[in-house]
C-alpha cells in the first residue's frame, strides 16, 4: 500500500460509524443505476484508490458531496476534517460494492 492509499484508508476509518452507515445507505439508494455503472466502469479502468475518480472531483464529485450535505443531511461538521473531500470517494466505493464495509 502506498502513502496515498494509507492516507485514504486512515480517513475512512475516521468517519463516525453512524455517519458512514447513513452515507453508504443514502448513496446506494439515491445514485441512479446508470451513474453507478459508469463509476464502476471508471474504477475498473484505473483501480488506484483515489485516481479512478480524480477527474470527477469537480463534476460528479461535487454532486455527490452536495447530496451528502444537503439531501442526506450529513454536514461536513460531522467529519473529523469538517469536509467531505477526503472521505466521499471511499464511501462511494462502499456504496458501489467496490470496497467492503468491514474494511472500515
Description of the structure:
The chain is an all-alpha fold and 104 residues long. The protein has helices spanning 3-14, 17-30, 33-45, 60-71, 88-96. α2 (17-30) crosses α5. The longest helix is centred in the first third of the chain and has 14 residues, at 17-30. The two termini are 16 Å apart. The relative contact order is 0.21.
Concise summary:
This protein has 104 residues and is mainly α.
What is the number of beta strands?
0
How large is the count of helical segments?
5
Sequence of secondary-structure elements: HHHHH
Task: Tell me roughly what share of residues is in helical segments.
Answer: 55-70%
Backbone structural class: mainly alpha
Rg is: 13 Å
Largest sheet properties: none
Portion in strands: under 5%
Termini separation comes to: 16 Å
Shape: globular
Compute the average pLDDT: 90
Report the uncertain regions: none
Distinctive features:
5 helices, mainly alpha, 104 residues, 0% strand
Strand-helix topology:
Blueprint: H1 3-14, H2 17-30, H3 33-45, H4 60-71, H5 88-96
